[in-house]
């Protein structure tokens, strides 16, 4: 896993868009994001699933040969949105980028590769794209039946209960950090 500020330069979303300004793992934690690296260690993934009461999972393979209307789907995944559930992804093969918004509403790009497991809190604005290799195979974990309902960013979504709850928790955590130690 590697995190940095997105450069906001126009161009293919699958390019690195690396601004050269890195983000420390602690800054991701301040945003409510948890990361683990478990190469070939499904037992550790299962332990996290049990600990967080995740009962279901599926696998998704994102590539031009496995996903009908690939280019259209990848653009859809890249629309800024949130979920009302925590989002847990374990990368089984390939890689990709999750972009999340920090407190200043800047995009933070998180590069995930095989063995990376990331947990994003409910209510965080984010988006996803494959990388230039156009291949990501990921395990998605769910508390109940598998569902993936994106709520696009907008006035109504900004007022969503889960969004407000996320902001309250994030801001309280960030407010407890002295200015000299703040990373976002």
UniProtKB/TrEMBL annotation:
Q: What class of enzyme is it?
A: oxidoreductase
Q: Which residues cross the membrane?
A: none
Q: Name one GO biological process term.
A: L-methionine salvage from methylthioadenosine
Question: Single GO molecular-function term?
Answer: acireductone dioxygenase [iron(II)-requiring] activity
Q: What is its main location?
A: cytoplasm
The EC number(s) given in the record are 1.13.11.54, 1.13.11.53
Keywords (A to Z) from UniProt: Amino-acid biosynthesis, Cytoplasm, Dioxygenase, Iron, Metal-binding, Methionine biosynthesis, Nickel, Nucleus, Oxidoreductase
Q: What metabolic or biological pathway is this protein involved in?
A: Amino-acid biosynthesis; L-methionine biosynthesis via salvage pathway; L-methionine from S-methyl-5-thio-alpha-D-ribose 1-phosphate: step 5/6
- Which of this chain's residues are annotated to bind Fe(2+)? 81, 83, 87, 126
SUPFAM superfamilies from the UniProt entry: RmlC-like cupins
* CDD domains linked: cupin_ARD
Q: How is the cofactor bound?
A: Binds either 1 Fe or Ni cation per monomer. Iron-binding promotes an acireductone dioxygenase reaction producing 2-keto-4-methylthiobutyrate, while nickel-binding promotes an acireductone dioxygenase reaction producing 3-(methylsulfanyl)propanoate.
Q: Where in the cell is it found?
A: Cytoplasm; Nucleus
Q: Which GO terms describe its cellular component?
A: cytoplasm; nucleus
| Superkingdom of this protein's organism | Eukaryota
* Record bears the keyword Oxidoreductase: yes
Cross-referenced HAMAP family: Salvage_MtnD_euk
Per the record, the similarity remark reads:
Belongs to the acireductone dioxygenase (ARD) family.
UniProt name for this protein: Acireductone dioxygenase
Organism encoding this protein: Recurvomyces mirabilis
Q: Which gene encodes it?
A: ADI1_3
